Amino acid sequence: MSARPVFDELIHAPNRLQVCAMLAPVDALEFGAVRDSLGVSDSVLSKHVRVLTEAGYVSVAKVPHASRTRTWLTLTDAGRTALDGHLAELRRIAGMAGGVADRPT
Amino acid sequence: MESSGSPTPDDALALLRDVDTARESLAGRVGSPWWYRLGAALSTASMFVGMGLVVGRPAAGSDAESASTLLVVLGACVAPAVLMYCLHRATGVAVDRYVHGMLPWYLQVFGLLALGFVLQAFLDVPLALVAAGAVAFVVTYDRERRIDARLRAQVVAGT
Question: How far is CA B51 from CA B54, B68, B82, B134, B137, in A?
Fold first, then answer.
């Protein structure tokens, strides 16, 4: 069943959209893996993660490892619903430009 | 692009392309490294070698009995758990690799185990379980390779 197109202002920021899109197909991603894939700094990603966490779209788990703590990010059900709706809306809008409404993303 | 309001079709296309790019980047990390595939195959093969020692009916408390127990426990319990932990640490990706079920692999590997056991224990074919273990090694390595390919495809598709 395809998601209902809903524009989500919070996810719309490109980095946040990409974070959610990467989290969707996996159980969890380590903070560093997301940072490296996006090519952004720790502080930039932290800011976006905080926004997503406060919205309830992403949950954060801190796992102690040796002398450091590793942070794992998970997309919540609310985040998944918002992502699916926003991607559906983007596909709908992009479809106006000509025949891309059936993109797989 | 911290814009507010609805994007233009061109903006939407650009964002969807960014999503594809991010997922392709993630797909590069989601597969297992060579050592995970090798470790999974070796742990499977170690169960066969351990069973092969059991078939030789080692004396209680002998080195052969200890080795057989060690190999079976290592291959069935310890190695898979350690490998999975190391995989998560190394890749930074937590995903259920075996969500699509392990029944075909179980059938193949335990079929081989039963065949090797019958050949070695009842028909006195020497090293039949070691040979079956070699086949199980290949089967397991190939299974992990296929799982990697499926996971990458799923990530790219966003499913």
Answer: 5, 6, 22, 13, 15
